[in-house]
Amino acid sequence: MTAPDLILTNATVVTVDDADTIAEAVAVTAGTITAVGSATEVGAFAGPGTEVVDLGGRTVVPGFVDAHSHVSMGAPFIKHAALTTPPVGGTRTVGDILAKLHEAKDRNDPAPGEYVIGWGYYPEAMDDDGELTAEILDREFPDHRVAVVHVSAHGGVVNTRVLEEHGYVPGVADPDGGTIVRVPGTDRPNGVLWEGAWMPLAFSLLDYGRGEFDAMLAEYARWGMTTVQDGAATWPQVEKVRGFAAEGALPVDVRSLVIFTELDEAVASGLVDTTVGGHTVQGVKLILDGSPQGKTANVTQEYLTGGPSGEQHWHGIANIDQPTSDAIVTTAYRNGVQVFAHCNGDGAVDQLLAAHRAAKAAGATPPGRTVPIHSQVMRLDQLDDYVAEGFEPSMFTVHTLLFGDTHLANFGRERAFGISPMRSAIDRGLRPSNHSDYPVTPIDPLLLLWSSVSRTSTGGVVLGEDQRVTPLEGLRALTINAAYEHRTEGDRGSIEVGKLGDLVVLSDNPLEVDVDAIRDIQVLRTIKRGVTVHEAS
Fold first, then answer.
1. For the chain, what are the domain ranges?
2. Class for the domain spanning 1-57+495-536
3. End-to-end CA distance of the chain, in Å?
């Protein structure tokens, strides 16, 4: 055996292999794991050029795989105003929002007419009512376009200049699959847009260069992520990332999902399932509904609090109709393209299942592991459908912390307590992953892990004790299960000989500390293919 380039020893190595082996050391040679075992066994392979790192009992886990996030959204947001509320950020009032927007404007110095942008707006968690309108933004920023992105990324608030440029003038009808919120008692848009009224504008905001992209990947590496998904990229964004990767291997692997409206272009390119420099074109992303915290998730049982514009008997929004989703899934399956679909509400899950069955009835063969992303306000019988149809859900348990109290108000205890039912999925033999959906929620995988084990809201309510998982199950959801959903379990997701040397050194063992201490565990080192891409100072 060639002497390893790197040996991590005197550690607790949580392999998450099939036997859940705990080892003491791991060796990496030319980017690949070549030995896992006791400190003595692995240490015997060291040569004169081997870097031997004594971890003093620290814990090593597989490189985290963010099963669903948004590189092409996060990269441009790096330089804009972060408006997140506690416990993520410090925005508490409309005054805070305006101050942070002004700080971003001063920092970025946009020319007159260019955009001032903020993201992470969540009025329900603010100390005042959080109401932001075009009128307020007009007054504060008379010379610029302004867009404030809701925390869900499925809606936002813009100033009058932006409204008028998009044809959102008094009397205009809501677009299909979208909502334009009006000034009470009038037909005049108040600046708040949702789903189909918001998305075309939102994608126009996502321009970024190499500097922002590199900063974004460095942020993922800081949190121990070694593989991440770009979860809804336009074809130009896919080509941009491919170009960056062609210049030199990326420090974190990026797996792009092309937005469903550009599936034909992706298929024609011949780039689906190809990899260059750590960038892979993974599959297609459907966006079937919205967000439960934004009241746009498509649910079969109505919201208890009405709609975003005060609608009664509100069930959310279906972003595309059934025939359209049937056609997209059929095209994807016929071309061997893996399907990922944003499904927050049970109505959206029903729509995906129907599209899948319609594609099969049309003679298209599923390529396997269709992934319903989020799987939040869903019915447990739908998990049985997942099993029957070969679906694997990617769940979003940090919602129980960040938005749990809002979900209780919107849906009541029974539905809110069943948000992202990971325990029930595992008990049925499914292999659910967990994801950050960054920039919707923080990248932090230890917070994700804690949320799957604790399921406790900011208000202290346990959202479904019977859906809690063990720390090991939670860790598997962030490593081997996520790799399995990406169809990459053969080369990553666990610490085994022959797999990539993607490793994370943690300050403590998440399998042994008290549950509430999991979220405080620190990432000390991130290793990608045997090379350290982040080390804590």
1. 1-57+495-536, 85-150+154-205, 210-487
2. mainly beta
3. 34
* Whole-number pLDDT of residue 309: 82
pLDDT digits (tens, 9 = 90+) for 267-325: 999 999 999 999 999 999 999 999 999 999 999 999 999 998 889 999 999 999 999 99
Query: For the chain, how many helices (H) and strands (E)?
Result: 18, 25
Q: Return d(Cα 71, Cα 67) in angstroms, integer.
A: 12
Q: Hey, what are 308's tokens?
A: 């975003």
Q: What is the CATH number of domain 210-487?
A: 3.20.20.140
C-alpha closest to that of 434 among 408, 468, 411: 468
Which residue is it, tokens 């392999």?
15
Nearest to 499 by CA among 511, 509, 490: 490
Q: What is the pLDDT of residue 205?
A: 87
For 180, list phi and psi in degrees, rounded to 5: -105, 115
Instruction: Indicate whether 1 pLDDT > 80.
Output: no
Residue 272 DSSP code: B
Question: Which residues does residue 65 pair with via DSSP β-bridges, in sequence order?
Answer: 227
pLDDT in tens, 189-221: 999 999 999 998 888 888 899 999 999 999 999
pLDDT of residue 392: 98
- Residue 100's nearest CA partner among 125, 122, 86, 81 is 81
Q: Is domain 85-150+154-205 in CATH 3.10.310.70, yes or no?
A: yes
Tell the burial category of 407 from Cβ atoms under 10 Å away from its Cβ (0-12, 13-18, 19+): buried
pLDDT digits (tens, 9 = 90+) for 372-387: 999 999 999 999 999 9
Query: Closest Cα to residue 293, out of 281, 305, 283?
Result: 305
The H-assigned helical ranges of 14-170 are 39-43, 71-77, 94-108, 134-140, 160-165
